[in-house]
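Write out the bound-state structure for zinc ion.
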Amino acid sequence: MSRKKRPETVASVWGLRCPHCGADDQLQIQLTTWALLTPGGTIADSHHHDWHDRSQSECLACDHTGIVADFMIDHQRRARRAKGGPS
Ligand SMILES: [Zn+2]
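---
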């Protein structure tokens, strides 16, 4: 018997989903990146960017905004447990 491997999702790989609507395929994260400053402007280095728990985040499905930590599934479970709800 072979098991079918579930497709990877943002929720399964990164542990993030919208705390408001539950979507995990419409999340945007504000990045910090490096750019070369030239006389004509900046040239962003798309290979070196960073984000963290406090980076701004937004769900394009419902317009919910917050920080990445708000979108962490573990944080959402802990918050529900603290309120006495289902985990
Ligand atoms: Zn949402």
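---
Residues 13-31+52-87 form one domain.
Helices lie at 10-14, 68-71, 73-82.
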